[in-house]
Amino acid sequence: MTASFNPYRVLTEAERESHFAACRAFLREREGTPDVATRTLSLREARMREYEENPLIWEGACDVAAFGRAFAGGDRTTPVDARTEFALAAAKSNEGEAFGVDMELRRYERKGLYRGLRAPDVLVHQYMQEAYHCRLLVELCRTCGIDFRPRAPALANRILISIMGLVPASVKWIPGMAGEIVGAAVFGVLHSKTSLFRERPEIEARLRSLLHDIWLDESIHISYLRAQNGRIGLAVVRALFPLVARVLLADMPPLRNLGITAEGLVEWIRNGVPIPDEVAWLEGSPATESSDRDEETPVEVEPSLVA
Is 235's pLDDT higher than 50? Predict the structure, then answer.
């Protein structure tokens, strides 16, 4: 069983402050100090270099030629094996995030953080985490035997992300939170799909470790944005989520081929967002959960989104 997180539960003021303090302590202990100029976190950089300097590569695990054709937008009528589809889904899932984070970090370097933002230092940590996701997915593809280089997302996604970057800070976190929920779902499912590589346990373990880092990050980011929003904002996130999911998934056929659809995500979110067990504290204390959790949201759910 996996811990569950209800993204739409409205927090009290005391819960918000407690949550920000807990996130700050967790990120400092796990990630270290952020350096915006170099896009690094002091402790995380050491973990990232451990991956990069000690690669595990399963030669022949994926169809490199088919990956290249599909990633470039070529003909997808020819079936692609499940392992190659897995690598494609991971590579495609990072395009929008990398584009948006780079935009936000460049804005931060010019103007600083948004006025009125709660716990801005926590957001800086999270931007740095997002910057690592591209490197993690490059390493994931290398582990699958593929030399992958990121590219910009499709026009529709670039427009949506750019609009998110331009809206006033008072509403900025609404579409951003919907996008983070999609991200947590995608990486949680990809994490479960590493069983495709179980013939090589060391490869499967490396892939799980890489994806676990991203899944955990996305879970924290959802909780941070939940604490930024009040009752009205969270209601709008809930209403907006199906549209954001459709737009973000439209440019990612590999995810659809793995069974991840906008409709499936909408149904899946009814049971709460599955999150890694080590951040189960994001949902709050047991007393808070029993009094404030929606009745339809169980404490634990199986992370099943794929048929």
Answer: yes
Largest CA distance in the chain: 55
Average per-residue pLDDT for the chain: 81
Q: Are 212 and 191 in contact (CB under 8 A)?
A: yes
CATH of the domain at 9: 1.10.620
- Rounded-to-10 torsion of CA 195, 149, 95, 194: 0
Using a 10 angstrom Cβ sphere, with 0-12 exposed, 13-18 middle and 19 or more buried, the burial of residue 235 is middle
The pLDDT of residue 188? 85
Domain containing 128 equals 2-301
Listed residue (240, 299, 286, 241) closest to 6, CA to CA: 299
Helix axes 169-192, 82-93, angle to 10 degrees: 160
pTM as predicted:
0.83
Query: Residue type for 13, please?
Result: E
Instruction: Check: CB of residue 182 under 8 Å from CB of residue 244.
Output: yes
How far is Cα 224 from Cα 177, in angstroms, rounded to an integer?
9
| Range in 68-77, 88-97, 128-137 with the lowest mean pLDDT | 68-77
Three-state SS at 300: strand
Looking at the domain assignment, is residue 306 inside a domain?
no
The answer to whether residues 134 and 94 touch, using CB atoms and an 8 Å cutoff, is yes
**Structural domain count of the chain:** 1
